Amino acid sequence: MSTLNAGSSTASAPVQSSAKRTDADYFREFITERSSVSGKSKTGVPQRNHTGICRLCVSTSCKTGKRVNAVNGYANFAVHVRRNHEKLQEVVSFLTVPSAKESSSKQQAKLESFGVRTGRPYSSSDPTQKRLVENVAKVYAKTACPLSILEDRTFDDLVKDIDPKLTWPSRRTISRRHQEMTSAAKENLKQLLQETEEKSVALCIDIWSSRSKRGYLGMTVHFLDRQGNLRRYMLACPRFSGTHKAEDISVLAVEVIAEYDVRDKLGFIGVDNGPNILKAFEQWMPGCTDESQGRFTFDDFDLDFFGSQLDFDDLDGGEEIAEELSSGLRKFCSLDKRNVLVTCAAHTLQLVLKKPAEKCRALHRSVEKSAAIISKINKSNQNHELVQSEFGGRSFRERCRTRWNTNHKMASVAVKFDWNTTSLPLDLKLDVRSHSILKEFVELTEPFEEAFLTLQEEGVATIASVIPISYRLRIMLEKYLAAGTSTEFDVLQSFARDTLDELNTRFAKYESDTLYIVATFWIHEQS
User: Fold this and answer.
1) Is residue 163 part of a domain?
2) Phi and psi for 9 in degrees, rounded to 5?
3) First to last CA, the chain
4) Span 144-170, pLDDT tens digits
5) Of 287, 310, 343, which residue is a domain's last?
6) Overall pTM surpassing 0.90 (yes/no)
7) How many CB atoms lie under 10 A from the CB of residue 177?
8) What pairs with residue 230 in β-bridges?
9) Residues 252 and 373 grouped into a single domain
10) Interacting residues of 179 by C-beta distance below 8 A, sequence separation 6+
11) pLDDT tens, residue by residue, 43-67
């Protein structure tokens, strides 16, 4: 049978398509000498031009032109075939008989294929596609991972396995959406800050250096919203170049404060004990006073500043603690309009341990020796792997010189390692005396480590924990000194005495401060 006779067999009625055929299928099946070229329209709009010769027209000598053209799609090819060749047997079979691929998929559908939608990709305005872009932008914002990772095309394969119509956003799309979300978050935060009461916002500022020695000025804001919920946000973390002079700190801080327009809202500013950052705020904000100075007066005051739920007459004046609390509450309510610099209690606690540890020679030598050994071990791949094999997969932690409590973290891991049976070289072994001193040091400073974690806890008013922590640490040290050392070494007795003296000296300003007294009793009463 000739090609012409085979192609001219007709069907008696219009064909109802039972096979899934797209416009592109018509283009691939019936069009020869196919070409697709990119170009532009008369108005300069980019477009894709498809052209080809219909082989059915060639075989049947159809009066319709043999060449078919289409722009940005294949619809013209499908229309041409259906309009001029719908009754040809070849077209009938094409529309009714499923392809081998379709037949195999119908015979045994894979489990992962259920619920998967197919078709044209979502447009950029589609809600599903927009949610994907927004979530990817959130990942970029919260993890700070490089855009070069997020733009990897393997992510596109991932989302297409979930939904073939999804398209992984490009680097430019992620960056643009991230900027939009950042701008919206800033405006929302500005609105929340403007709704707060005057002098009711707390600002915390600290300077950090990255591992590459690049300085940054971190600024966070804390306040209560209208519903009484504690809110905390990162205001900014700008690059801080050069030396950390007070003038440079104040200039950068003022820029951020002015951007959010919170000058009149600030009541408390939390800083560390660095003289440069304390001086910075005394320069540009004359109202700033150190918390150790007399900032409370007994002039006219508004009781609503503290809260209308307080009633001084309900306090039992016969008890000493109630009298102290009553006096403290009255002083607190008389707080004037000055801004108050609140020094970081966690940073102060770091300083409590620093000098006593340096003064105790035996402890200082043991800490420095273990730090040097651990540093050498971690720099050697061979020794590092040896420790991991003998330490159950664990490795030593190195300390950070600017954070003294990391000495506790380093020592707490080192004392658990068996230095007697290790295969490390002799110069990388910790001696018995140093091991015993570090072991007792870890036990003695464990309450201090717990205090660090408590004072750095997020989402709670840690100012209420300062005085209870100082009392607990004082009682612990006094009991230790009264009991004496439990080992053959008596070197940590002097360390404990000096630490107790430092604790009494540095935390006396907190224990006699009205603000901390009120916070301790009032917040615990509320909870």
Assistant:
1) yes
2) -65, 135
3) 94
4) 888 888 888 888 888 988 888 999 999
5) 343
6) no
7) 20
8) 224
9) no
10) none
11) 777 888 888 888 888 766 565 557 8
Whole-angstrom CA distances from 415 to 331, 409, 424, 498 are 49, 10, 16, 24
Tell me if 420 sits within 8 A of 475, measured CB to CB: no
Q: Are 77 and 207 in a shared domain?
A: no
- Whether residue 139 is found in the same domain as residue 262: no
Beta bridge partners of 269: 203, 341
8 A C-beta contact, residue 338 and residue 295: yes
Q: Give how many domains the chain has, as a whole number.
A: 4
Range of the domain at 278: 197-295+337-343
Q: How many CB atoms lie within 10 A of CB 401?
A: 9
The residue type found at 302 is D
Q: Which amino acid is at 183?
A: S
User: Do 359 and 407 fall within a single domain?
Assistant: yes
Residues 397 and 476 in one domain: yes
Assigned token pair, 33: 């000498």
* CA distance linking residue 264 with residue 146, whole number of Å: 38
Does residue 121 lie within any of the structural domains?
no
517 and 373 housed in the same domain: yes
Closest among 467, 350, 481 to 404, alpha carbons compared: 350
Which helix (H) or strand (E) covers residue 37, if one does? strand 31-40
Chain centroid, CA 371 distance in Å:
30
- Site of tokens 């402890």: 363
Report how far Cα 403 is from the mean position of its chain's Cα atoms: 22
Residue located via tokens 């001029």: 84
